[in-house]
Amino acid sequence: MNAASVTPVDLSITPRDRRFARKAKPAHWWHGGDPYATAFYNALSSTFPKGEAFFVEAVRNHRDGAPPKLAEEIKGFTTQEAIHSREHDAFNKAAVDAGYDLKPLEDRLQMRLDFIRSKPPIAALASTMALEHFTAIFAHELLADPRHLAAAEPEAQAMWRWHAIEEIEHKGVAYDTWLHATRHWPRSKRWKVKAQVMLIATRNFTLDRTRGAIELLRQDGITGPKAWFGLLGYMWIRPGMMRKIFRAWAAYFLPGFHPWNEDDRHLIARYEEEAALGTESMKKVRRAA
Question: Domain residue spans in the chain?
Answer without folding.
Answer: 35-288
